[in-house]
Design goal:
Layout: H1 8-29, H2 58-75, H3 77-82, H4 91-113, H5 120-153, H6 163-187, H7 194-211, H8 224-236, H9 243-271, H10 273-302
Helix pairs in contact: 1-4, 2-4, 2-10, 5-9, 5-10, 6-7, 6-9, 7-9, 8-9
Length: 303
Amino acid sequence: MRIDRSHLPWILAVAGVAVFAAVSYLVNLHPDLLPFGLKFPALLGPVPPTRANYGGTPLGLLFGIVAFGIFLFAAALGVRKKKRLWPIGSVQTWLKAHLWLTVLTVPLVVLHSGFRMGGPHTTGLLALYALVMGSGIFGVILQHFLPPVMREHLPREVVFEQIPFVRASLLEAATKMRTQVAEAAALGVSGDTSPHILGRFLDEECLPFLSLKKEARTPHLESSQSAAEMFKILKVNVHAEWRPRVDEIEAWCETRRLMNLQTRFQHWLHGWLLVHVPTSFALIIVTIWHAWAGVRFLVTQTH
């Protein structure tokens, strides 16, 4: 998802709420730092709070509850993507909300913690939160800058889910040509070595390249420059009637090479989710545990 002008309302809204939360924090904890006299309702407790742990104050709890609610909403994005017909906002709107509301959790979490790391429990929770946010930011950066690079380096793309089938069809076509070339070599026209040259090229270069199940790592056909040189030499060494076959082989190899590049781009584009998704669910679970431990502590202190 690219960040463009359509994100501006979200940015302004998040910035406004963050400023309001920061001012509320100061009003609640350091009213003497503000040039104007603002007071909170009595239900938010004494000013400044008498509790040393700011996260346990009414306003601190409110910051934490809102942040946790955003965590739950962010996790619901996966469900919304699968239920595209649900009349609850477009997927694009959910993506923007997912991005900017999770950014809003940064000031909320910082204010909830009172700018303190706390003990091992809260430090571990903050470290997990940092991992989730870091992987998410990394993913946003990739999704913003990588698609233009892909369009520049991929003159044509195959539907990603269809790549295995296209690879199989290329290998099948090359195998069929190898059989035809072998038959032509067996019939053999005196002095024409073209079928033997093509057969050797198919056996040693083309078929191994096309048959690789994973991304090719061969140094010849994987490089567009070296592949162009190889096919140029191949065309010189076969009779003119065989050169259309060389063009076919070259087209197959180019398609395979582009699909390999597309696969690498796709792995970069979506690979960060392998970290972001499981750590996000772990964050929700640990946050629930944190809330339970906090409530238990408050109840103990009250009694």
